[in-house]
Write a structure and sequence with these properties.
Layout lengths: L1 E7 L5 E6 L6 E5 L4 E5 L4 E6 L6 E6 L5 E6 L4 E5 L5 E5 L6 E6 L5 E6 L4 E5 L9 E3 L6 E7 L2 E6 L3 E6 L4 E6 L4 E6 L5 E6 L4 E5 L5 E5 L11 E3 L5 E4 L5 E6 L5 E6 L10 E4 L5 E6 L2 E6 L12 E4 L2 E4 L15 E7 L5 H16 L7 E5 L9 H8 L13 H12 L4 E7 L4 E10 L4 E5 L7 H4 L4 E6 L2 H14 L5 H20 L8 E4 L5 H15 L14 E5 L3
Parallel strand pairs: 17-38, 31-35, 31-36, 32-35, 36-37
Antiparallel strand pairs: 1-28, 2-3, 3-4, 4-5, 6-7, 7-8, 8-9, 10-11, 11-12, 12-13, 14-15, 15-16, 16-17, 18-19, 19-20, 20-21, 22-23, 23-24, 24-25, 26-27, 27-28, 29-30, 33-34
Helix pairs in contact: 1-7, 5-6
């Protein structure tokens, strides 16, 4: 790493430094109770934000850079408008200092972690000032949190990592055996990295919980030291209590470099942030910010020949750009059916039953991808027409079948893909938010026309059709559109009469003949769902255990080596 520039923040001791989502700006928080917005490439301070009565320990910006959230020693969580600096919300519900804060991807929720042993979840759209949920499973301080695809990961001084599956309300609790201070999820969502107070950084497989690698030869016994992954997941960076910036190769755990910030300053480097797109890094030591740039080539004395992972030998040529990945050929399942037939509920039931059979060591066995994510972009006029029930969302032309086909092909070839998330209430994709989907053993694609396109239909190894009567589907649609999306009943009925019903009869219902299994009554048909799950168990060679007949535990503990 090469030092590009150093500049003073004038905030006392800097507690955290964070790049924004595109890397053009960064935020710093300090012991002087302020937050600052910077243009780091030019050392330009743009704006200062106040409102905390004690030091600010963490700060995070929203996906559109319009809002920020912060937490500090005053036990408060602030929600701030970036342009005006106005405090939009001030939450005061923690019993101890707030260690970490994060927005969800849509910036509609704030997560805060505290030394009071809780994670609290705040709905910033609500008029209420109480958290919508409190996660109080930790037995000691919650030191950090990280958000992945539908998952919240936390670390605690009780030596445990907790993985909250937000979609299905599951908690996986992993005993590490060290006091934990910081956590990061790899960009492919398959691994997580934890910092400890025993001068070790540990890399774990998020799916089965196995320890993959340990990184040592740095100092971290007293303070929380942050770590970061390079954008290609090839290198790991960390500060150190002896004033150094450390870099390791992720595959070999070999230390690539150890750089002093100042020759006469051995004060701790606690916080750092990696640029989201470029090979740049920001660190902070005492009151100064340091901008580093990776050299064109990092020299390593030893060649990577073979690497052992999960008790299997994998040749280095199997890795793509150094990513820690194993080749997985997913079993692809298509689930079709009319609108509001219960496709999503059937998928959820299959996922729950299959993963409860697999056990805690296969927390990410199944992924569900909605076909709605592959709608073609709509103009403002088209979205307004859709709200009034005057636009056909159920016609084959509404979908980008070429993009869907290529995405499924990439997953079948073992590649990780990025999929734009669709907002069904607004009839548009959520700007700036992409879901990272890695190959897992089972991938389910659900949608009304998933069997309509022959090239897509032929990719599925199992095809299911959820068959629900028209009256039930209409009743569900009316309730959903009016209650969840605030639609006018007249618009809902007009859309159903003019487009939904004709499109179902013309394009969806004829594809029923391609199904391997037809499921009448949807998820209420327990016999059909059980048979499907049993078939998948046989395919994946999972042998049912005695506990399989019992309801899956909501709280699963997984022991880790230490």
């Amino acid at each position: 790493m090469q030092l590009e520039r150093k500049f003073p923040a004038a905030q006392g001791a800097i507690r955290c430094v964070r790049y924004n989502i595109d890397g053009n700006y960064c935020l710093t928080s300090g012991s002087d109770r302020t937050i600052k917005l910077w243009k780091p490439d030019s050392s330009l301070a743009i704006k200062t934000y106040t409102g905390h009565s004690q030091e600010v320990l963490d700060v995070h910006s929203s996906y559109d850079n319009s809002r920020l959230c912060s937490g500090g020693g005053d036990k408060r969580v602030l929600y701030i408008d970036v342009m005006s600096g106005k405090i939009m919300k001030k939450y005061q519900a923690h019993a101890g200092r707030v260690q970490a804060v994060r927005f969800n991807e849509e910036a509609s929720i704030i997560f805060s972690a505290s030394i009071d042993g809780t994670v609290k979840i705040w709905d910033i759209k609500s008029r209420e000032y109480d958290p919508i949920q409190v996660l109080d499973d930790a037995k000691d301080s919650v030191t950090s949190l990280s958000l992945g695809n539908h998952e919240l990961l936390t670390t605690s001084l009780d030596q445990r990592v907790r993985i909250y599956d937000i979609r299905y309300g599951k908690l996986y609790e992993d005993y590490i055996g060290h006091n934990l201070t910081y956590i990061n999820i790899s960009h492919d969502q398959q691994c997580f990295l934890v910092g400890t107070l025993s001068s070790q950084i540990m890399l774990f497989d998020k799916i089965n919980g196995k320890l993959l690698q340990t990184f040592v030869d740095y100092t971290n016994n007293t303070y929380m030291i942050e770590n970061a992954l390079s954008n290609d997941d090839q290198y790991i960076y960390s500060g150190s209590e002896n004033g150094r910036l450390i870099c390791w190769n992720l595959l070999t755990a070999k230390q690539i470099c150890s750089i002093e910030h100042e020759s006469d300053n051995r004060k701790s480097v606690n916080t750092l942030t990696h640029h989201p797109k470029e090979d740049k890094l920001l660190t902070a030591q005492e009151g100064n910010i340091y901008l580093w740039k990776k050299q064109d080539k990092i020299e390593e004395k030893e060649e990577i020949k073979n690497f052992f992972i999960n008790d299997k030998q994998i040749n280095a040529s199997k890795f793509v750009s150094g990513d820690l990945k194993m080749s997985i050929v997913p079993f692809l399942i298509g689930v079709a059916g009319g609108p509001c037939s219960g496709k999503s509920t059937v998928c959820q039931k299959i996922v729950e039953d299959l993963q409860s059979t697999a056990g805690a060591d296969q927390a990410s066995l199944v992924t569900v991808i909605p076909m709605e994510n592959f709608y073609k972009p709509k103009t403002i006029e088209q979205r307004e027409m859709a709200i009034r029930g005057n636009y056909n969302l159920d016609h084959p032309d509404a979908f980008d079948e070429k993009l869907l086909f290529q995405t499924l092909q990439d997953l079948l070839n073992g590649k990780t893909v990025q999929i734009a998330r669709y907002n069904t209430g607004k009839y548009e994709h959520v700007e700036g938010i992409m879901d990272t989907i890695a190959p897992v053993p089972v991938i389910i694609i659900e949608g009304i026309l998933i069997f309509y396109f022959p090239e897509i239909r032929n990719l599925f190894q199992m095809k299911l059709f959820v068959d629900t009567d028209a009256d039930t589907r209409l009743a569900r649609r009316v309730l959903r559109d009016m209650k969840q999306h605030g639609r006018n009943l007249e618009y809902v009925l007009a859309g159903y009469k003019n487009y939904v019903k004709p499109s179902f009869e013309d394009f969806c219902l004829p594809t029923k003949k391609y199904a391997d299994v037809i499921i009448p009554r949807g998820a209420d048909n327990h016999v059909a769902v059980d048979l499907i799950v049993q078939h998948m168990r046989d395919f994946l060679k999972y042998k049912p255990r005695k506990s399989d007949s019992q309801p899956p535990a909501e709280h699963t503990a997984r022991a880790r080596p230490h």
